[in-house]
């Protein structure tokens, strides 16, 4: 197994304490008495390419869901169009509980403001199952970059020569956040979009781009190996245990730009309530399992389970919040 994939599959956040899941555990215990179980293999759809954080997290959870649901849970990558390809695929499948749609802040909250002709509506086409976790991000540069701090980055971005920042997709959280940062600091920054985090990181380490905001889980192994340098932590109120020397945005005077990432799972609208309850219980049980807890050791994530109703309200509030941000920075996509 590739060493980076092994790291991703063997490590996601030490903060996943069982007590954080107590409320979800009660739901899981109640739903476990339900008789419903899938009658065939279950598909876990990921709107991103293989190799990144979302893909790795999905494969770890799929292994445990297979045990709970007593059917194979198969991860299927459907990348492209900011999650619209995956959403369209899931939307046309039966609402019978045999398809789970994993996503994050992009397809579940930002896209409503980014795409005037979005081919799905999260609230109308899907039933939220649960939020899984919130995640920190890190602003990184190549290890050999002359930029050694956020202050030096802001100084370098004041010149006539633009700094090129990468992201794992147009309209992704790193893209929108960097536009927020550019608007706040007045830096001369230009966006370079990639189809996934892996190619962006490779170009960053190769010196083809100057910086990148990335999910901490993706960049941590490269920072540890001395291939990348982390300048700031985004989405956490305190320094990461894994990067104690790296300051938070609040410490750097940019606390108002703090914005954690998050992930969650939805199913087709119209899925029977008993099936939704059983799937919710199974996902919570999978994340609580000792096997997953052990393998979630080093990613900078925080458990954040919610009931389907809570997750629905959360998605609505995040959609409104990021809609205002996207309007302010002026990003729109066809």
Taken in chain order, the helices and strands follow as HHEHEHEHHEEHEHEHEHEEHHEH
Low-confidence stretches: 5-34
Work out the strand percent.
15-25%
Q: Which strand order spans the largest sheet, edge to edge or round the barrel?
A: 2-1-3-10-4-11
Q: How far apart are the first and last residues' alpha carbons, in Å?
A: 38 Å
Number of strands: 11
Task: Report on the biggest sheet.
Answer: 6 strands, mixed
Chain-wise SSE layout:
Layout: H1 3-10, H2 22-31, E1 42-46, H3 53-69, E2 73-77, H4 84-91, E3 99-104, H5 105-114, H6 122-125, E4 126-135, E5 137-142, H7 150-156, E6 163-167, H8 173-185, E7 189-193, H9 197-205, E8 211-215, H10 216-224, E9 228-234, E10 261-268, H11 273-288, H12 290-295, E11 301-303, H13 308-329
Parallel strand pairs: 1-2, 1-3, 6-7, 6-8
Antiparallel strand pairs: 3-10, 4-10, 4-11, 5-8, 5-9
Overall description:
This protein is of the alpha/beta class and 334 residues long. It is 42% helix and 19% strand. It has 13 helices and eleven strands. It has helices at 3-10, 22-31, 53-69, 84-91, 105-114, 122-125, 150-156, 173-185, 197-205, 216-224, 273-288, 290-295, 308-329, and strands spanning 42-46, 73-77, 99-104, 126-135, 137-142, 163-167, 189-193, 211-215, 228-234, 261-268, 301-303. The strands form two sheets. The protein has a six-stranded mixed sheet with strand order 2-1-3-10-4-11, with helices on both faces. It has a five-stranded mixed sheet with strand order 7-6-8-5-9, with helices on both faces. Helix 3 links the parallel strand 1 and strand 2. It is globular and about 65 Å long. The relative contact order is 0.22.
